[in-house]
Please model this.
Amino acid sequence: MDSIPYRRLFPWLNIRRAFSIARDPRNLLIALIGLVLMSAGHTAFHTFIPKDYSRNSVSIGKPQGTANSTEMNLSLDQDAEVFYIAWLRESLTGELLEPFHQICNPAADIFFPPEGLQSTWADAVTSWTLFFWNLLVWSLCGGAITRQAASQFARQKTLSLKESLGFSRKLFVSYFSAPMLPFVAIGALYLLNFVFGLLGLIPEIGPVIVGSLWFIPLIFSLFMAIVVACIAICWPLMYPAISVEGSDAFDGLSRSYSYLTSKPWQLAGYVLFAAVNGVIAFGIVRLMLMLTMYISIWSVTGSWSDRDSYFNTPFISDLMHESGTVNLLGSNQPGLVLIGLWVEGTRWLLHAFAYSYFWCAATIVYFVVRKSSDGTDLTEMYVPPTESPAPAASVPATTLKAVHTDAMPSLGGDGEAPQLKEPPALT
Model:
């Protein structure tokens, strides 16, 4: 009996492959490059503008809008169940969704400034600058990861760093402008509301006119709210759409909006399954990294008198249910500083996996929702002429049939070929 093709019957099961694709060293390296570029840009920006914009700033290990897992103040006397529930919540709402926060939080600050209606132009410049920088970085790195994930998922072929980054570089304008296109519509509607608001400056009758016709800005604002909500949900699918189809920004935008409106509940189910799978995958990776770091310190410092100071550190203390209080990089002990570099590198690697999984899962979700929407096969994707073809499947050697010698014309006794007789002449 043939095995049941579960993945063909239930295409959403293919989302499980996001874990194996996300841990590919090439995807992790591209994600690390993106993290370094994003962090460097934020550091440079806050060097010139020292005002604290903690909601916008990037901090590896402290995702936006959440508390750092190493600063959760979990003590040894707390119940282990409470710790693991908090750890699970942190993995889902923090590290795993950090790529989503890094784009959406600065964009949200544009519409809902942290200072409220009293925000200044400096606040707006900060939000726009960080939004543009994050979008620039992940237009390059996110595009490369989604292209790599698409090739591994659909073609079973791993691209080189040059191929994946080269593809995202060529379509960089499409990646960058796809999430920006809805802002054009939002800006146009905002301008209409702004012009309508000028009527309120007319002495005496201005406020009356505005109040009487208030349904007009309500209609415009409703359209703006719909666009904002859709882009917040759809923008992670825009990059996979461009990477898979090799298309422009408008096609990536239209496809993501189309799949959201045509298959909203299926898309929600796929995203939920990807999130659950991601929490499990991220928990496994996080646990293994912490165990590896813990066992390395535990085994190496077995004979050291100050070994306790090496355990009371961020990231390692998570495994021991206690808060870290020692800053390794700020220590006056060279040994702690050097080990701190490795611990910090391990944390960056963990967050690189979160970014890699985010983009790989978004890519596979795009493949699955595309198949359920228009029936396109999961293996169909755009392949540019400059990209090397996928390895061909091995074909078994064909067995040559023996040819009987009696089927061959016999040779004469002297070894010469028989002479063909000419047909008789027609009379």
